[in-house]
Specification:
eight-stranded mixed beta sheet; 259 residues
């Protein structure tokens, strides 16, 4: 179902998929994380829809059968979506959990992966949810935990905090989050990311506490054609906190690779 928030981003709903699509050219396929509002990618959409086809499929984090609520279940959704849209090849851009799914897609479909951008991605290391998972019903605690996602705590808007609060206070959604998080930890990609042949751009926040900068360094050491940029005053969502720098780095990467 398309919500009021989704309407302002011109979301489409067809064949069981909800997605944003704007612009023309090479497909930039943006994959969001567990707590990824569409506003996370607002600056990226505005900048790149002039030169590329920007596509954001809404991942069914809370809509899959229990046995499919996993990173592989979400990968299947992305595979079926790209097949439905008949995209010949895509440039994957994944934040957090979305980066994990991007890697799985790149490994399964090297012929359809023109390039990949990982920002604060899971796949090698994730801070376990454990005791850090926000307490149910405590809005102020949830606001504080959400604010720690960023270098600048003011980035934790009421819209974003409300989204997290809604999830934490919905038992079924919490169970889905935990299933996906545990699945991400089981599907560690350390032994396989070296097989990714497409050019890879890594953009990391220097103060990211969820997937710290050393994770970006490790990706760079494991992936043959990877370049790493660390944004010092930035947390877990570089495309939100440093949109101009993020977009500049991404544009230069795409230009160098003829994309």
């Amino acid at each position: 179902m398309i919500t009021a928030d989704m309407k302002k981003y011109n979301m489409k709903e067809e064949a069981g998929y909800i997605y944003h699509e704007s612009g023309e050219g090479e497909v930039l396929l943006l994959l969001h994380g567990l707590f990824g509002a569409l506003s996370n990618f607002e600056h990226l959409i505005d900048h790149f829809s002039a030169t590329h086809k920007v596509v954001i499929p809404i991942l069914p984090l809370f809509g899959l059968p229990e046995e499919e609520t996993s990173v592989t279940g979400l990968l299947k959704h992305v595979e079926e979506f790209t097949a439905y849209k008949e995209y010949k090849r895509v440039i994957l851009i994944g934040n957090s959990l979305g980066g994990h799914i991007a890697q799985l897609y790149a490994l399964a479909h090297p012929d359809k992966t023109a390039a990949m951008v990982l920002t604060a991605s899971s796949g090698l290391f994730e801070e376990a949810l454990g005791s850090t998972y926000p307490r149910k019903g405590d809005y102020e605690f949830i606001r504080e935990r959400t604010a720690k996602t960023f270098y600048n705590p003011e980035m934790a808007t009421k819209e974003l905090v409300d989204e997290v609060f809604d999830i934490v206070n919905d038992r079924e959604k919490v169970l889905c989050v935990l299933r996906i998080a545990k699945s991400a930890m089981r599907h560690n990609l350390r032994e396989s990311v070296g097989n990714i042949k497409a050019p890879v751009l890594l953009i990391w926040g220097g103060t990211d506490h969820i997937t710290p900068p050393f994770v970006g360094e490790e990706y760079k050491s494991l992936i043959p054609h990877a370049e790493l940029h660390i944004l010092e005053h930035c947390g877990h969502a570089p495309m939100m906190e440093e949109p101009e720098v993020f977009n500049k780095i991404l544009a230069q990467f795409l230009q160098r690779n003829g994309l």
